């Protein structure tokens, strides 16, 4: 270590909310990725922006790295303290600070999860739509520029954050915007911190845009004879500008896993899971138009989820794809990866990836937020067989290279973390160097989640 | 001058596309703002990214400022070469490079105007919605994070740009994204350059999102007994989540100017100008819901613009507000300014501003993109009477301070330029210093549109 951990100062600041126990460190040594766990040197639980600022100041004085932590649901090793240092578990900063129903915005602390927020909002008629599947912390979702099933309609985190409060690497606290809907006064620091994965500062407060709970919601599933026709149906639906709230691709392998895990009896064919939001007549009109397109592309009749319970069941099942996949191969671990391509290249990207997995020794269900051109595969591997891991990494590598070849990006929503850093030079060219210049300007000591996202000096 | 203009090198690069004539310099000495013209030392007309890069490299070697220029429609002195140097007129880089109808995106050069783009797109069924009124260049619109009448539905420039190509201060060329709809791979440089007003680099190519031309469009006007009830109607409409395509406030003074300039006979009362986009039934439903709200708030019946011609006439009139205002006071000049506040504070902001103007010696119609909480006033002043200018600047100052007091921003869409720079410390606090750090990192010589947006070292 080139630095010393300021144990005494942090303990005196935080008392029992600063731990160096093996248990606390182990609990913060991994996320949902396949990376080997790495123990931070200590874990701190701040309760206020002032405490985060004080911790960062102390750490900065000692050259000690600081790694923010939400719920640990990241998928590319974002929260692993690969250079040691102090992990800041933000889950005591989990309050909803202000609901401005009349302005359709809300101010939250970063440890608040998306489900907790929506529970708190229930009576207001408003909701926060971004849904990455996991019940992630909103700070973590901002830090990774998360999106998920509803992004096709409501956008990603970058479209749904009005302003942030951030503690910089020297402990200074800044606010990056106001509650006004738009502004042309200066560099867009809000968007700069969204997706910065803790490398430029620690998000301590978020002002989020809310949306009206739709008057009517309707969900349906439809199956197709093959992947190509399912994807063609998606492309045509999006091009027809039907304002889909969700349009999710679920391949045959994933359907088999769902049927086994959830005891459902879906036909073992590629599916689309759909949702429509709007007025009752608007929803009916959207569903009719989408239905006509799906039928023309060889899809089955819509099977509607008639009740709220059936609808919740459908999306719960979709969100449990990872667990369903895992259950098909007892003892396995999962390497999950995502890419995003222009929608005109989606069929190629999905078909080539499916063929590539089929030609490998591995099983890998594919699911995707296909309205955005974004899809995932969950590769199941035996943790004790190094050949499996190698095969999985090879597949993920070819998937990333394929996305770049097709004019896309190596991650639509999971982020860079440790797993995708090796592609950033290829994806961004000289723009990656510019990211490095910004990192250097804002964190000259390289203490904010070091080892992630940017090239190291 | 601390630098020398590399006349010979630039002339040898550009031939007759590099001019130092008084006429060329005078033509590029002003925008639509009230600022005293400032002559650049020379004007260059590049025709390619490679030429922009070469120009910037030559200028950088001589420490010579570079100021990008679109059509000169900026409103806060953005394009004035206040430190001298070379102005880059981008209007020879005005091509539409590629239309990807299947992906609903388009690649354009920065000198292409929004109207030229939409003319080119007419046959595709797609359009680019952002409409700041002026037929601005798309590069300029990106640089100022422009928005306008349709932002309430389609967002601002920040929501409608997928990627940029930018020439940095050392002549390096970067690309800030791909054609994928979303990405989580690294800092959002696209959004960093949007709104950077030429201070971080020169935009040489834009990849824009397109939208489907709405199947049905319907416009209407409605008048109200007073400003308060008009604004209340806006707030309620937005809170009811009616997806308004346009909802424009036009005050009594502006209506009087329209009636005089356009020979119309609108009742001399505050108005809302509305537009609905969607399917025929969707548009009818939206109009009905909005109508009910407006009536409940004291509005008149909708007077629909029945034909495409009538609709175009309505929006042309709205866009000509500046000229209509000018015509009411022969020989006057106009100081136009905008602010944006959370919509719950909009009534206060507008009413206080109206009262403030009424108590001044000046006339000033007010119009606004009120669905976003954004409004403008056009203050008419006698250029030969310094008291008028002083009164106008005082009013604009109080409007800015009022916006900040109400939790808003000193500009919703016009930008910083020279006019609003003095408010950035108050609006952004320490975040303004962070903007300065980024400027310093990307443009260490301070050659890219110097004197604008950031604090000077």
From TrEMBL, chains A, B:
**Which superkingdom, per the lineage?**
Bacteria
Keyword Oxidoreductase attributed: yes
Q: In its keyword annotation, does this UniProt entry include Transit peptide? A: yes
| Protein known as | D-lactate dehydrogenase (cytochrome)
The kind of enzyme this is, by top-level EC class, is oxidoreductase
GO-annotated molecular function: D-lactate dehydrogenase (cytochrome) activity; D-lactate dehydrogenase (NAD+) activity; FAD binding
- Keywords (A to Z) from UniProt: FAD, Flavoprotein, Oxidoreductase, Transit peptide
Name the cofactor(s) required for activity, per the record: FAD
Q: Which GO terms describe its biological process?
A: lactate catabolic process
Q: Which residues form the signal peptide?
A: none
Cross-referenced Pfam families: FAD-oxidase_C, FAD_binding_4
Q: Which family does it belong to?
A: Belongs to the FAD-binding oxidoreductase/transferase type 4 family.
FAD-binding PCMH-type domain segment(s): 36-213
Q: What is its EC number?
A: 1.1.2.4
Q: Which Gene3D superfamilies match?
A: 3.30.465.10, 3.30.70.2740, Vanillyl-alcohol Oxidase, Chain A, domain 4
């Amino acid at each position: 270590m080139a630095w010393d951990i300021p144990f005494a100062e942090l303990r005196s600041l935080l008392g029992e909310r600063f731990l160096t126990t093996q248990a606390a460190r182990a609990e913060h040594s991994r996320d949902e990725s396949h990376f080997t766990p790495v123990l931070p040197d200590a874990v701190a639980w701040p309760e206020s922006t002032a405490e985060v600022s004080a911790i960062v100041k102390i750490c900065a004085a000692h050259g000690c790295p600081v790694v923010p932590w939400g719920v640990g649901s990241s998928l590319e090793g974002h929260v692993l303290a690969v250079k040691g240092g102090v992990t800041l578990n933000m889950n005591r900063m989990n309050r909803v600070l202000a609901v401005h129903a009349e302005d359709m915005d809300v101010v939250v602390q970063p440890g608040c999860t998306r489900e907790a927020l929506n529970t708190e909002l229930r009576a207001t008629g408003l909701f926060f739509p971004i849904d990455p599947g996991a019940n992630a912390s909103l700070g973590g979702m901002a830090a990774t520029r998360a999106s998920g099933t509803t992004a096709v309609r409501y956008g990603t985190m970058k479209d749904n954050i009005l302003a942030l409060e951030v503690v910089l690497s020297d402990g200074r606290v800044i606010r990056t915007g106001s509650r006004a809907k738009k502004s042309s006064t200066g560099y867009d620091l809000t968007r700069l911190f969204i997706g910065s994965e803790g490398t430029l500062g620690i998000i301590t407060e978020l002002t989020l845009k809310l949306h009206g709970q739709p008057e009517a919601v309707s969900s349906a599933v439809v199956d197709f004879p093959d992947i190509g026709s399912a994807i063609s149906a998606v492309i045509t639906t999006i091009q027809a500008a039907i304002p889909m709230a969700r349009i999710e691709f679920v391949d045959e392998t994933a359907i088999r896993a769902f049927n086994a895990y959830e005891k459902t009896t879906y036909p073992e064919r590629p599916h689309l899971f759909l949702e429509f939001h709007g007025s009752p007549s608007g929803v009916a009109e959207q569903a009719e138009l989408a239905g006509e397109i799906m039928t023309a592309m060889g899809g089955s009749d819509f099977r509607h989820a008639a009740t709220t319970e059936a609808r919740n069941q459908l999306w719960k099942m979709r969100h449990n794809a990872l667990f369903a996949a895992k259950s098909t191969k007892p003892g396995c671990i999962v390497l999950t990866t995502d890419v995003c391509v222009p929608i005109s290249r989606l069929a190629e990207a999905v078909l080539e990836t499916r063929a590539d997995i089929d030609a490998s020794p591995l099983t890998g269900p594919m699911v995707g937020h296909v309205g955005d051109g974004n899809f995932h595969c969950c590769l199941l591997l035996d943790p004790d067989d190094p050949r499996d891991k190698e095969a999985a990494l090879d597949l993920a590598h070819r998937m990333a290279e394929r996305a770049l070849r097709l004019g896309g990006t190596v991650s639509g929503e999971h982020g860079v973390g440790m797993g995708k850093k090796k592609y950033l030079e290829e994806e961004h060219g000289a723009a990656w160097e510019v990211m490095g210049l910004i990192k250097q300007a804002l964190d000259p000591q390289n203490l904010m989640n070091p080892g992630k996202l940017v090239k190291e000096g």
